[in-house]
What we know:
The complex is a heterodimer. The longest helix of chain A is centred in the last third of the chain and has 45 residues, at about 320-365. In chain A, a hairpin with a 6-residue loop joins strand 3 (about 190) and strand 4. Chain A folds into 2 domains: about 1-40 and about 320-355, no CATH class; about 55-305, ABC transporter involved in vitamin B12 uptake, BtuC, CATH 1.10.3470. Chain A has helices spanning about 5-35, 40-50, 55-80, 90-105, 110-140, 145-160, 200-215, 220-230, 230-235, 240-255, 260-265, 280-290, 295-315, 320-365, 370, and strands at about 170, 175, 190, 195. Chain A is built from 15 helices and 4 strands. In chain A, the strands form 2 sheets. A two-stranded antiparallel sheet of chain A has the order 1-2. Chain A has a two-stranded antiparallel sheet with strand order 3-4. By secondary structure, chain A is an all-alpha fold. Chain B is α/β, with parallel strands linked by helices. Chain B folds into 3 domains: about 20-245, P-loop containing nucleotide triphosphate hydrolases (Rossmann fold); about 260-345 and about 435-543, Rossmann fold, CATH 3.40.50; about 355-430, no CATH class. In chain B, strands 16-19-20-13-21-22-23 form a 7-stranded mixed sheet, sandwiched between helices. A 6-stranded mixed sheet of chain B has the order 6-7-8-3-9-10, with helices on both faces. Chain B has a 4-stranded antiparallel sheet with strand order 2-1-4-5, with helices on one face. In chain B, a hairpin with a 2-residue loop joins strand 1 (about 20-25) and strand 2. In chain B, helix 15 packs parallel to helix 16. The longest helix of chain B is centred in the middle third of the chain and has 16 residues, at about 185-200. Chains A and B meet through helix 1, helix 8, helix 9 and helix 14 of A and helix 11, helix 12 and strand 18 of B.
Amino acid sequence: MSSPLRVDREKLVLGVAAPLLAIVTAVAITSAVMLLTGDNPFRAFSVMLDYGSKSDSQVWIINKAIPYYLAAAAVAIGFRMNLFNIGVDGQYRVAAFFAAVVGGALSLPGIVQIPIILLTAMACGAIWAGIAGYLKATRGVSEVITTIMLNFIGGSLIAYFLQEGRLAERDENIVHTTDIPDSSFFFEIPTDPYPIHGSIVIAVAVGIAYWFVLGRTRFGFDLRAVGRSEEAAEASGVSVKRTVVTAMLLSGAVAGLVGMPTLLNESGNYGIDFPEGLGFTGIAIALLGRNHAVGMGLAALLWGFLERTGTQLEFEGYDQEIVGVMQGIIVLSVVVAYELVRRWGIRRQQRQVGEQLAAARNGKTATDPAEVSA
Amino acid sequence: MIPAPKSPPPAEDAVPAVELRGITKRFPGVVANHDIDITVRRGTIHALVGENGAGKSTLMKILYGMQRPDEGTIGIDGEQVSFRSPADAIGRGIGMVHQHFMLADNLTVLENVVLGAERLHGIGAAARRRISELSDTYGLGVRPDLLVEEIGVADRQRVEILKVLYRGARTLILDEPTAVLVPQEVDALFENLRELTSEGLTVLFISHKLGEVLTVADEITVIRRGTTVDTVTPEGTTPRQLAELMVGSELPTPETRESTVTDQPVLTVSGLHLSGRDADGLPREVLAGIDFTIHRGEVLGIAGVEGNGQAELVEAVMGIRRPDGGRIELEGADISHAPTRKRREGGIGYIPEDRHRHGLLLEAPLWENRMLGHVTEPPNSSGPLLTAAAAREDTRRIVAEYDVRTPGIEVTAGSLSGGNQQKLIVGREMSHHPRVLIAAHPTRGVDVGAQARIWDEIRKARREGLAVLLISADLDELIGLSDSLRVMYRGRLVADADPATITPEELGTAMTGTATGHLEHDAGSDDASGTGSDETRGEESGE
């Protein structure tokens, strides 16, 4: 039987067709937008490529991509089972805040303290997401609503504690938590001109775990089964409610790590200037990377590339907003292109199945015209 | 039973009401219809029979303007036409009564009939007059002011018929109109149809129930594998000949006779109770005091009009629904509170009623579907890890052994035809050596080849000592495969019967809830199936 081979080639064609279509469309539309606004798209692309390939830009892009990737992975865990965890943003901020508080309060050796900080962050993120999971499983409340609400509640909670005399201190104009001891900073990978954050190993580990648990374990199969058909999963013996809660806990735990590259490699504390909105970027990157462990890595790098080169475009006289437009167009192109290719693939497959059946039938019908006329 | 008077031979009418010539319709990769030739004479009931998937529905969609043929011509009253939409077809006097009713429950019969056809007679007195007129002419007995939700299935069907008549239809297409009716209602429907034809209307009747077709039709066209095979008259045909025309080969039968029933109970259900709410939110008993035991090598068939608790019974046994009382035992072990996965691991195989919703992940490849429901068992996993290579290998085996027609195991389950999907499910369930097999409508919507195959598997399972719970709407299948039969009505097992002697008609009567206790094959006296015998039999264990 040569059919498995043929189907595999089929898969490859489909796999390449979608990103290709997406890139071509995105470039074409972006060019059209720039032409309409009177700019030269080709010069813009060459500026971006030039600037983006400089070594300091590359380090910047990689460091930026680390939290993006973690946020995307957190969102993707939900997506794989049809849960829309829109609350990664709140989860990572709550997690980073309390992890920073714990880190600032202790002064243990780094090898002990770093894991404590990471575990605190994961636990806080998991609890924050778990509330939504619990409400969904027991009361049927949509996780979209609860996680959005929890974003606001989380923001207020942090605002309450992030005041002098509560869990924070003032340093000139910046209010922030107590600095973590130097020994608790994460290592760095020395590169030229700046070092790459060592927290990249967290991102890689999460990526591998994501791929392995979802694709290679029974638990991952149950989770994906729920994502594809809740009813079929229930009938097959998966406890949908428990899977919902577990998936939200996992998603939240990974979300808890999103703030760690910043905390452990850059700031050393949680202040009012701690980055916000990474959770929403994560949604776009998960979409862009098709919830795929490697795809999301590429998408995170692309996102970093666009942000980095966008600032340069401004120096070159372009509107900085064009990068935002580009990001939007890319996400839309990818979503549309993948959907189109998916439908095309299904039609192709159905045709193949049909052809196979027709061939089998014709083999049979050749023998029975006699009885037809009987 | 109505003695089936054949309508008088229609007057010599050279111009046929509907004439289809050389109709061919291709879908990507599949030819749904080819070289269809049908001539329907005016004033007759013309039946179109064929097995599921033979192309009947596509053909009717073409005639009703929902699909356009790739080749061929449609003639109406001798004039060649080309329909772009159902509106064109309605304009030409063709009306369709769909298998699934398209009525608004919260509107009255009158409102439903005029909805969308307000321009004909308005919505007031004129419309009401026209409706009564039509209802009287054709003996439909429609009461215009009742809400649709208040009337029964048979009445709803009459409203659908009235709807198309109101729009001026002279030719009515009825798609499997008897599927939702009990035998008595079927007879009433046939009376209505005869009224219609005696007034000069033409009826095209789609069915795969041969007995009915032979009773009511003036002419029968058989369609097989997308093309018309022959047109016959009921006088010159037997059901068997008709069936063989339909299938194109020797007919499979669901008969299994020599008993393999033992006295070792495998699945014992006692006092099962489940309450729920009906459509109006009122509490009602979905399952009430269900008791049965299935032994090794026994097939227990449950007959009943759909919606009488069969689906809930299956889900309760599978652990998908939590009953609020009663006990379920699997070979002596109490599994009343075990989760679904435990029950499956414990040896309950499950062929669900709705394979798309409950049996398959349509977007997943076949080998992942092979894991569904058995992901904790070899060859699908070892410990917490999946063993994809072994599962793939075993999927290839199932595909080969159970004759699943597919180009490979990487295609999605949704691409396969219904029969092949079902064969995959049966193969999957049987591969885990179950002790109990729960088969809900196992051959619904599958082609005859797959049906024979699935019947074989159920017989084989029985021979190998499985206990089988069979739920089916196909009474021949139930009677043919079962060792014992129960009738389910409003959440209760109200009667039992011996499949060796009972006829489908008797079983159908019992399904309307008119009989209790043990059903005897009626040889003259009617005391067993009559309503007068309610309390006479004590063997029903329940209350």
